[in-house]
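note to self: dont lose this again. the chain is below, predicted strucutre after it. 82 aa total, dont forget to put it in the shared folder this time
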Amino acid sequence: MKNSNRDLLVLVKDAYTNQEAMQYELQQLNTLLGDFETLESFCLAHEVFDLQKYRILTKKAQLQKIIEKDTLKPFVFICNKN
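---
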């Protein structure tokens, strides 16, 4: 398993958790986050409002094209569907 380069803040109720149990929890969290942090899941959870052309973009190819740009055009917004 590759080690992920991220900072995680994990709060536990039991202050006496041993190091082995904590490592196992971190491995499980990294596995879950690796599964969910994909372009596919990002495109399912977001949409783009293009107020210049009065469009809402929801297709994966359209979103990927906009996400890959360094800067967005004015009045183009990436919004979470929640």
